[in-house]
Specification:
28% helix; 262 residues; Rossmann fold; alpha/beta; 3-stranded antiparallel sheet; 2 domains; 6-stranded mixed sheet
Length: 262
């Protein structure tokens, strides 16, 4: 039987260990992202989330473990912090062109993200929410196979957060890309993700949002008061992350009160 290349992860990290200054930041941490799925990495401050992302991207080396990437993989990355000197005169279009993107695609992606009117604005005149969307536009400009977003809602007001997550979901659907998302915004994240990985220097728990939200280790980190808004699933993932369609009669496909509905 011929293997389908889409069955393999876009990117996978296995048994990652990392120590900095004699302190263990990561211990035996593993993560994988497949095409067309949203994987969300959550955990308390200092849990090693951004470190794991940087190792997955090849921006930092691991002390132990290994990372594999699909050959020819194109990655779009929105880092947690990105500062531009406020004294530097640069428009949004010029900023995006520095990534090697043609102007037609620049205007297209700005429109897709709802900031088409910001094209000729100076970057330092953008609001916090507009700037985050500009960084997302930069990550999306090359139509990546994998979109990596490290705390993408920084500077975005509450009204814009749900809209921005919806647009990220639309991009996933339109591009067929995998999405690796790091976030503290559990209420929104749990509604928009396929698989959650809870990290606290090691992987505490992983799986569908509903299952993770009831895991004792998740509850010990975030408490039972965290509300989880679920979405309908027409598939599940096995332990290796493979997508398995659900039978319509499968009880797993039916929401229940304890899943956060009602």
């Amino acid at each position: 039987m011929t293997e389908n290349p889409t069955d393999h992860p876009l990117i996978e990290a296995v048994g990652i260990g990392k120590s900095i200054g004699g302190r263990d930041i990561l211990t035996d941490a593993s993560i994988a992202v497949h095409a067309g799925e949203v994987v969300t990495l959550i955990g308390p401050n200092g849990a090693g989330k951004s470190t794991l992302v940087r190792i997955v991207l090849g921006l930092m080396g691991a002390d132990r473990g290994y990372v594999t990437r699909r050959p020819g993989l194109t990655i779009g990355y929105l880092p947690q912090r990105f500062r531009i000197d406020p004294a530097l005169p640069i428009t949004a279009v010029r900023f995006l062109s520095l990534a090697g993107t043609d102007e037609a695609r620049i205007h297209e992606v700005l429109e897709e993200l709802g900031i088409g009117d910001a094209a000729d604005k100076q970057v330092h005149d953008l609001s916090g929410g507009e700037f985050q969307r500009l960084l997302l536009a930069r990550a999306l400009a090359r139509r990546p196979d994998l979109l990596v977003l490290d705390e993408p809602l920084q500077g975005v007001d509450v009204a814009g957060q749900a809209d921005l997550y919806k647009r990220i979901g639309d991009m996933r659907a339109n591009l067929g890309a995998g999405v690796l998302l790091v976030s503290h915004d559990l209420h929104l994240v749990m509604a928009e993700t396929d698989r959650v990985i809870c990290l606290n220097h090691h992987v505490c728990c992983a799986g569908q949002p509903e299952a993770v939200s009831r895991d004792p280790e998740f509850l010990s980190l975030f408490g039972a008061a965290v509300a989880v808004y679920t979405h309908e699933h027409d598939h599940r993932h096995d332990h290796g992350g493979e997508v398995i369609p659900l039978d319509p009669e499968d009880e797993m496909a039916k929401p229940s009160a304890e899943d956060g509905h009602g």
